[in-house]
Predict the structure.
Amino acid sequence: MSAREDEVLARLAGVTDPELDEPVTDLGFVEGVTVEEDGAVCVDFRLPTFWCAANFAYMMAEDMRDAVSALPWVTRVVPRLTDHMCAEQVNRGVAAGLAFGAAFGEAGSDDDLADLRATFRRKAFQGRQEALLRALLAQGLAPAALAAMTLAVLERTAAAGEGGAAKKRRYREIRARLGGPAGPEALAFVTPEGGPLDPSVFDDYLRALASVRIAMEFNGALCRGLLEARERAARPSRPEGAAPPPA
Amino acid sequence: MYRTSDGEEIFVVDGHTHFWDAAPANQRNVHGKQFIDCFYAYHSALSPEQEVWPKEKFEKYDAETMYNDLFVDGPDDMAIIQPTYLKEFYIDGFNTTEQNAVIAQAHPDRFILNGSFDPREGTAALERIHALKETYDIRGVKLYTAEWRGASRGWRLNDTEAYRCFELCEQLGITNVHVHKGPTITPLAKDAFDCHDVDYAATDFPNLTFIVEHVGLPRLDDFCWIAVQEANVWGGLAVVMPFMHARPRYFAEVMAELLFWVGEDKLTFASDYAIWTPKWLVERFWDFELPDDIRQERGVDLTPEVKKKILGLNAAALYDIDVDAAKAKLWN
């Protein structure tokens, strides 16, 4: 693999599936990257089923295009979705820089998926916040302390438990993208609207976050199951414990 | 009937079953192939390994296989058989009322046959509802708002044409409206995931019951919110059930959400046959318990009494099934 291909993959690792809030590279969606001498990049990708929602597919293709375009040497990005009911519209539309609505020829639609993106950003924020809050509660921090915690204090606080560090990193990353005050003295934990948390109704707040996460996780669980089933079907079975075939 | 390890006998109504033909000979185009491939992926992704069928059997099974899987090997006492037309994908349709009637009319004590309509057909939809009532005396319909039709990629329950259909359903006593609001199979854009149209229709038609199949997943939060407000909005557990096997902790969280918001009286068991078979689902469901932390946090429990409601008594109430009479007839 060339250095440029590595750079492209590193950029793609920053693109998430909007519902699963996980990198498309970890999910196994990216099937291959081709870099031409003139700096054109082609990204082959595939989703768990032929029917995966077209708007999500479009969003991921746009995000891949934008992420890869940020590399200084890249002249052109061609996302190439295969095995999908709307592959042609997605590939053509994203390469031409069309808004989703225009790419799908919906009469009078200029839908650029901004609302949907905002919805999923919010849900991702809530999901990551719940994970971190529960980890911190489990290690003995009180709701009042969490509600009053500044970003500077969060910085110094270690999140214990399984995956604690990753939970903190993922939350800080999305907290930084929320907008509004984000200096060291700003509150670490705020509502998706940027308001403070009320420790007196902390349980209700957490429960609401859990509801959002449980709803989101469904497609994640289903997608992962479908991906595994597809892989099982596509690959010849090998004995348990045998070495994987060379890549 | 399901007999528990303690010898208790449980009445089971399977809320969602199909008798489909997706064999290559019936596939109209690549969509027909992709559709059944997607179902098969659900089937193989979420079933225990020993319950996975060969692809060919999954594409088309006969009436005897279905009867056996539900009532002989399986624990179902009765099953609601729901149509999915998909005539744009399959030459004779995927699983039409007429197709389902072949098996349902052969075993009238076992099956409840539901119909369907597409409000985009306008007057023809109304005529169709009349015909379904006259021919099959249906009590319920299964609606599929994401179904393609010509250039249209779907419709909504609160469309004017849909309201005309609901008015007629109400007049004719077709009071159970099952709506597919779940994983997208034929989506285009934003609408496919949305279940807010249920809210409008349920408010405007308080005499109809709207059973949201697949409990709105992945919009479970939206569905729960609607079901709390609307007494006539229920949840159907097709597709939720098999998570017991694949992701038990997650299944427990979803059940706790549903019990907390929707309540134990408005949830119905379903296998979604032939995507899954009821035997292993009922066995495992009966043995399933919510983990302590989830039970405590939500303040709900999946007791044997709750399970009995979900497995059969709730659906019996919806369809006016006299449970004692049915037991007397079916258990002897």
User: Anything to note?
Assistant: Residues 116-219 of chain A form one domain. The beta strands of chain A are 16-17, 22-23, 30-35, 40-45, 76-81. The radius of gyration of chain A is 21 Å.
